[in-house]
Amino acid sequence: MTTQYEEYSIGIPGQPWNAAQKRQWLAAQSKKRSYFDDVEQRLAALDNTTYEVQQYGVLAYADLGFSDYPLYCVKVGTFDKDLDTILVSGGVHGYETSGVHGALDFIEKHAQKYLGKANILVLPCISPWGYETINRWNPYTIDPNRSFYNEGPTDEANLAMKCADELGLNIIMHIDLHETTDTDNSEFRPALSARDAIEQDLWEIPDGFYTVGDSARPQNDFQTAIINAVKQVTHIAEADNSGKLIGSNMLQLGVINYDKKLLFLCGGFTDAIYVSTTEVYPDSPNATPDVCIKAQVAAITGALGYVLAHTLS
């Protein structure tokens, strides 16, 4: 898609961005919604007899003309070292709204059902600056979801990994909540092309829900359980004419795999046996943003149901 690459407003086609062009990109960003109103206030309203809300870090972006963003995790009930731990993460890409609100809805409406069955840790919004400015990257034009490795380049990833690691508990399942929007093609892929001077070949946006398992630990039946739960809420993405989704072979309806550790994805930073990354498409003519939030919740509860039945019982 050469025209999209050449028409991006920042940079010179064929040349990666320099520091001045990255600053130009940052200067063009603005706050479009409030993390403090949409996320922090909902966490503050939780019943502290059932939930423990902890601040696990802060993103110091006030000097960049924005805010310093406190980062929160939620523990459901009292953690028991003899129970396995479930990790739910949202908002690694802050602009992917249903991941954040799906995590919050799960906390408020469903998480208490699992008291005494597993330790449940939720990181509802890993990238609050991205949430407020509706961005995939952080202010330094770095994608947090390619940064989950030791002493990586983003505080978003480093602080989330530290939070989970300091529990000292066995994380058996990690579900990471994502979505794809039309802005992936209108803004974020063109920006990536311009930043790196690498033309993007992949522009497909699957219409419907799908999951990304880990090729090192695929757990096909686990992925099937997620798909079956979400099917009750919204449609599942079909393969393209070559039998693929976003360039990857579809292994079963709505399921592809990536090597998550190799790609430094959020879904790969633990050694959990059961790992899945969700993807929904709120711009679909067959879905709505609210349906996508419900699909994220269904994915979490479907995943938990499978793990409880097969491992924790």
TrEMBL record:
Entry cofactors: Zn(2+)
GO MF: hydrolase activity, acting on ester bonds; metallocarboxypeptidase activity; zinc ion binding
UniProt entry keywords in alphabetical sequence: Hydrolase, Metal-binding, Zinc
Occurrences of domain Peptidase M14 (ranges): 31-313
UniProt keyword Nucleus, yes or no: no
Superkingdom as given in the UniProt entry: Bacteria
GO biological process terms on file: proteolysis
Record family assignment: Belongs to the peptidase M14 family.
This protein's name: Peptidase M14 domain-containing protein
Natural source organism: Brumicola pallidula DSM 14239 = ACAM 615
Native organism taxonomy: Bacteria, Pseudomonadati, Pseudomonadota, Gammaproteobacteria, Alteromonadales
